[in-house]
Amino acid sequence: MRIVLVGPPGAGKGTQATRLAEQLRVPHISTGDLFRANISQQTELGKLAKSYMDAGNLVPDEVTIAMAKERMEQPDAEGGFLLDGFPRNVSQAEALDELLTTESMKLDAVLDLEAPEEEVVKRIAGRRICRNDSAHVFHETYKKPAKDGVCDVCGGELYQRDDDSEDTVRKRLEVYHTQTEPIIDYYKAQGLVVTISAMGPVDEVTQRALEALKREDDGQ
């Protein structure tokens, strides 16, 4: 299957993308991973992207699209892929359609993870990260440490990342509503959108998504 995963920040896209890609046996193609890989390997696209980032500018769509194109052309993506973080706006969605048409391919579904805005803010703003190891993540509501401000694993200090402050989260949501959310209507016009709730335990959301995708696949 060829799937695009969309949803607001805090809906659990990264977690679900990894789990769904494993279950569906397709590569998880994340724009964040693409940027990091191209920059660390110092590819031409990576150098170009870094030049924009170092100048404090957004990386142009054509650079992001070129990175995604290269990744989707790799052998492990022949049987399908799951795109996470791309397309991020309607112009990228149009470019993806053109690319897939050129390659005689098409999307099977656009999985839309829905979560109430206040829940999203609560999820992100409540996160606390260990200064010693960023893999040690706690939450003020959902995963409290035994001692406030102290990592249960190594005893390191827990802190809130600047990106996780409530004001920043609300600004990120504004960007999502303005730039990314319109692609849902774009894909609805093509009959591709499958919407599920991102609320509840991670396993339940994964199962909900797999069942919804199977129904979509069976109906085509």
UniProtKB/TrEMBL annotation:
Keywords: ATP-binding, Cytoplasm, Kinase, Nucleotide biosynthesis, Nucleotide-binding, Transferase. It catalyses: AMP + ATP = 2 ADP. GO terms for biological process: AMP salvage. It is found in: Cytoplasm. GO terms for cellular component: cytoplasm. Monomer. This is Adenylate kinase. It comes from Streptomyces actuosus.
